[in-house]
Amino acid sequence: MALLLFGFTPTYGAIIATFALVAISWLRPSTALGWRACLEGLRDGAVQTVPVAMACASAGIVIGIVLQTGLALRFTAFLIDFTYGSLLPALLITMVAGVILGMGMPTTPAYIMQAALLVPAIMKLGVEPMAAHMFAFYFSCLSAVTPPVALAVYAAASIGGAGLWASGLQAMKFAAAGFIVPFFFVYNPALLFEGPWPDILRAVLTGTIGVIALAASLEGYFLRVATWFERALFFVAAMLLIDPNAITDVIGLGLLAIGLLVQKVRTTRRTIAPETST
């Protein structure tokens, strides 16, 4: 982290950190790494790199086809004509295209490609420049956790010894807010700190509560294990709270309060029942 902050590349920082790890292990005899352990570590690293390398190669083929066929250059006109100038379908298509174009690429080049291909299309539909760029930037990052080509998931599954698809689905749960928030950037830029400060503070506060409600809905737990009805309440409340609008915020807080009240009542009944039988 220190090397990255001082401007060195991630590759250089990883190499130096690897040598530093070996040196630090020699400070105590119980943790010292010998030449055999170092060779085994190199072997394990090479084995775990194979799935990531395969994903990068597959993504490179897709990106090469998009660029060589000229689809990238015609995307803006195609998007506007295909959606008849409607913003929401254009955003949905841009989201899918952004995830595909960002596959297997680091964040910076993925964003640069989308800024050239996708952003002009949605800006022509009236989206503010900052909101359009942040929309593309979010989905260029989320391609790392979106199956089937999810490089971060491949790496995490290799390190943890977990299944690829199970890890991918869990990663998408963790990143669920990232798939939703960019749409609200477009329709109300208060979440991007644009507008009056009272609106910005309210949007940030209710958006934070909304993300918590979304996590409770996806994981099925808040005060206790949630029923499907409670999860539905939390999900709807999350959508309304993340939307930086005063009316939706009030309705969302009401639905969230109802869901918490139902959970509280169920918890109280479950506590009283054993005492009564006793």
Mean pLDDT: 81
How many H/I helices? 14
Cα-to-Cα separation, first versus last residue = 58 Å
Summarize the helix and strand pattern as letters.
HHHHHHHHHHHHHH
Which stretches of 5+ consecutive residues score pLDDT under 50? none
Gross geometry: globular
Radius of gyration: 24 Å
Q: Into which percent range does the helicity of residues fall?
A: over 70%
Strand content bin:
under 5%
Number of strands: 0
Main β-sheet: number of strands, strand sense, barrel status? none
Helix/strand class:
mainly alpha
Write the layout of secondary structure elements.
Elements: H1 2-5, H2 10-25, H3 35-68, H4 71-83, H5 87-101, H6 107-117, H7 119-123, H8 129-142, H9 151-160, H10 164-174, H11 176-187, H12 197-219, H13 228-242, H14 246-277
Helix pairs in contact: 3-9, 4-5, 5-8, 6-8, 8-11, 9-10, 12-13, 12-14, 13-14
Could you characterize what this model shows?
The chain starts with a helix and ends with a helix. The radius of gyration is 24 Å and the shape is globular. α6 packs across α8 (129-142) and α13 (228-242) runs antiparallel to α14 (246-277). 77% of the residues lie in helices and 0% in strands. It has 14 helices and no strands. The chain has helices at 2-5, 10-25, 35-68, 71-83, 87-101, 107-117, 119-123, 129-142, 151-160, 164-174, 176-187, 197-219, 228-242, 246-277. With 278 residues, it is mainly α.
